[in-house]
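Please produce the structure of this protein holding adenosine-5'-diphosphate.
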Amino acid sequence: MTDDKVPHAADNIIVEAEHVTKTFTTPDGRALPVLDGVSLTLREGEIVALLGKSGSGKSTLLRCIAGLIAPSSGTVEYRGEPLNGANPGVAMVFQSFALLPWLTVQQNVELAMQARDVPEAERREKALRAIDLIGLDGFESAYPKELSGGMRQRVGFARALAVEPDALLMDEPFSALDVLTAANLRGELTKMWESKGFPTKAVLIVTHNIDEAVQLADRILVLSSNPGRILAELHVDLPRPRDKRDPGYEELVDTV
Ligand code: ADP
Ligand code: MG
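Below is the modeled complex.
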């Protein structure tokens, strides 16, 4: 961690979710409590992993934080202001990439900025910068179907980073990729995070993969299932990049 990323004050809080509950209604009319009083703080300079089994409500919590859905009760704040619709300070990376197949790489990357009314010239410049940062230089005019899964997710990353969000929210971003591709992209993400040029101040990553959480995060929140509650919070004090052979790594995995 570089010095300028060390959090030191309460005003470094980017996102704060407090006592968030979410209850869905099933098609046959039953109440399905998914989140039950979840609180989470995301501060400048940290990568937080939200670890939980499939169906535990990880995506639901992320969507509440992004302001895509409203909690049944509880609050989500961005920089101290309660959300009223989409969270203006975050951008998302999705498991399924969520690219529009009829648009080129560059058009896909520009679309998120278009939705935020970024002027055209600035949009182009930021898109090209993000595409370059994520290693897709030369693929600006390619269509998603011409790309591998790993390259498609790079477009997903470029699209999110191009808006220079305060916080990057990632929903199992590597789980649709093969093991090697996932490891490469994870490694690159770690390197970019440690470098000064990374255009976001905090990362919240949702995962069901313990190793992924231990490799990336400064802090790991463990979410239970049925309903989702935060069971434990772990601080990870290992230097990055992290490797299974590092002293302390296996102990940490066993703790989780
Ligand atoms: P995770 O991301 O941890 O796998 P999700 O947040 O996607 O979990 O889902 C948690 C639970 O909420 C699941 O049982 C899922 O079926 C249910 N769920 C998610 N979205 C909806 C919805 N819009 N309507 C009804 N049930 C939903
Ligand atoms: Mg999910």
